[in-house]
Amino acid sequence: MGPKLLEGIRVLDLSRVLAGPWAGQVLADYGADVIKVERPGAGDDTRGWGPPWWGEGEDRVAAYYLSANRGKRSIAIDIASAEGVALVKQLAREADVLLENYKVGQLAKYGLDYAALSRENPKLVYCSVTGYGQDGPYAAAAGYDFAIQATGGLMSVTGEKDGTPGSEPQKVGVAVADLFTGMYAASAILAALIERGRTGQGRHIDAALLDTQVAMLANQASNYLVGGKTPKRMGNAHVNIVPYQVFATKDGHLVVAVGNDGQFARFCALAGDAGLAQDPRYATNEGRVERRGELVPAIAAWMLERTTAEWTALFEPNAVPCAPILELPGVFEHPQVVHRGMQIEAANGTPMVASPMRFDGQRALADLPPPQLDEHGDALRAALARDGGWPSR
User: Fold this and answer.
1) 3-class SS at 335?
2) pLDDT single digits (tens) 256-289
3) Is 347 inside any structural domain?
4) Are 212 and 294 in a shared domain?
5) Are residues 320 and 376 in the same domain?
6) What is the pTM of this model?
7) Is 57 left (phi over 0), alpha (psi -120 to 50) or beta?
8) Which pLDDT tens digit goes with each residue over 143-165?
9) Which of 13, 44, 145, 178 is catalytic?
10) What percent of the chain is helix, strand and coil (3-state, nearest 5)?
11) Taking all residues of the chain, what is their mean pLDDT, rounded to a whole number?
12) Any catalytic annotation for residue 206?
């Protein structure tokens, strides 16, 4: 097991689906003790988001759920009941962190909102994850990653450009608005815990998917705000760099990611046309971006002369950034991915992707597999009844 940097930190995870659970899993991998509260009978929605499934019969669980819930203990609690509310409050009194992604105002009905719980536990760092935030005209709206990618502008710059086959706005292949919100939430929680060490006071963190998505527009947003032009879909091309896109090869495709003028000079020399990089029209990235329409077709013609493997063998040793486009089997067979140990097995044999973070050479990794629904419920309820405080692991 990896280093336990957050050992002693107690996290009460009332969230479900992806953004909140992802934040909780990050904290668990860093050593926090995470108790996941789930609905009796059904649990987290993603338990049923299969196939594929892991396990058999009543014990089977969707692979989707497994991706975001490593390192947690599960207890089923009906928060609509007085008994359930009492249990959550009992846990919250000694928690350091509470994660939730209920609709705005919903937990206040049960006295489980930040205002109520912080009176009993002033040190509580309470993180609310919603689609649109705790205030504003859309605060009450349900927020789903797909809708947020659309509203937040990501789909407007993702997909083939207008006029090409298959040209329509596209979502990213994984739920990036959820995932980035989970990561932002985790970093905000850690910042609030550091501050609490100085002040003794917790915080209410308002983590909104739409806010995160807008922030994630990064250079595209900056290009618009500074340049005043609305960015359009460009397929796999880069709005600010040329050549930086996918090219067809003799037998497939290759990503070419030339990021500076020196790389472009090497790229041209290796391809057999060193003079192109010396042409004043193309010698600088600014010139290449301005003349994208005439330069890219010339490069595309070169790239058809060799196979993907031949180009890779030529470019990689000479510091020209490039990469074949791998499907998932190839990803997990890639020698660097294998060397770094990114495919792991939980203690119960569940195949998983490891945390990407290492500390002094050790990978951060929670020691519990994703739990079955209410797997730890009986033990947790008994400990709460017996001891009254946060149940030890």
Assistant:
1) helix
2) 999 999 999 999 999 998 999 999 999 999 999 9
3) no
4) no
5) no
6) 0.93
7) left
8) 899 999 999 999 999 999 898 88
9) 178
10) 40, 15, 45
11) 95
12) no
